[in-house]
């Protein structure tokens, strides 16, 4: 049993822990705005290990470490070749002697579990086929900020699109803070039933709801936030043509936003966006869009995660 904490899934945090991390993100963002953060991670180092491309995750983690006085460096998919050049266990054992933490973006979530098992340092999930916890932690921070630091309970987030890694983390994240969450996916592309069951159990404890509603128009009725993501995730490229046939009814366009019936509804997308597919330009660049503050908050959310795990 390792004696350091990882961040592999929002499901692993208690509601109190999750809230204390959100408050930490708020304090770090306020300090950053007021002139800069204290070098609380001076002397600490973070390896950024990527099996897939990235803009936001790579740059925000790297800058986050720099702003906290630490050091981060990027390892491209060609360098480590996790599980190919050598075993995941040996990568974990070796890198534990060099750095204070690893952020890894992997295809197979099992590789993160293995890294975690054999490393003696914190492992942070920078996206796997299963979930994307740093994304959704920062997204809930964005909503907390947008709604003027009010409790998130009672708010309703509707995710429209593929039942993918981001949807799984949204189920965990929203239920963790007692937000109602609805997932609207086409048949055959739903979220995993075990994740729904876990989120439902958590929602019951919080007095909130988890719904599955395949009809996107019905799903968004009364939404406070509408969230979407690409139809084809990294690693699924060979399914792209089929998916392009299935997903058009799930496009977040002006008419779907209007179907929420909420003039203050906000729209989120983890990005990168395939504009004209899952989201239109009119929505991405329109008055309801939080897309860019959301992307920018990856920096502040992840600084809180780094401060908690490496501080
Ligand atoms: N949202 C997100 O994780 O973006 P990148 O793939 O660019 O890191
Ligand atoms: N679901 C997308 C998210 C990208 C940040 C993917 O896995 O490619």
Task: Itemize the secondary structure elements and their pairings.
Blueprint: H1 15-33, E1 45-50, H2 56-67, E2 71-75, H3 77-80, H4 88-95, E3 101-105, H5 109-118, E4 123-125, H6 133-146, E5 156-160, H7 165-177, E6 180-184, H8 193-206, E7 210-212, H9 216-220, E8 225-228, H10 240-246, H11 254-258, E9 266-269, H12 281-284, H13 291-310
Parallel strand pairs: 1-2, 1-3, 3-4, 5-6, 5-8, 6-7, 8-9
The chain binds phosphoric acid mono(formamide)ester and norvaline (NVA).
Detailed description of the structure:
With 311 residues, the chain is of the alpha/beta class. The protein folds into 2 domains: 10-132 and 298-310, Rossmann fold (3-Layer(aba) Sandwich), CATH 3.40.50; 135-294, Aspartate/ornithine carbamoyltransferase (Rossmann fold), CATH 3.40.50. 43% of the residues lie in helices and 13% in strands. It is built from 13 helices and 9 strands. It has helices at 15-33, 56-67, 77-80, 88-95, 109-118, 133-146, 165-177, 193-206, 216-220, 240-246, 254-258, 281-284, 291-310, and strands at residues 45-50, 71-75, 101-105, 123-125, 156-160, 180-184, 210-212, 225-228, 266-269. The strands form 2 sheets. Strands 7-6-5-8-9 form a 5-stranded parallel β-sheet. A 4-stranded parallel β-sheet has the order 2-1-3-4, with helices on both faces. Strand 5, helix 7 and strand 6 form a beta-alpha-beta unit. The radius of gyration is 19 Å and the shape is globular. The two termini are 20 Å apart. The relative contact order is 0.15. The mean pLDDT is 97. The chain binds phosphoric acid mono(formamide)ester and norvaline (NVA). Residues 127, 164-166, 229-230, 233-234, 270 line the site of norvaline.
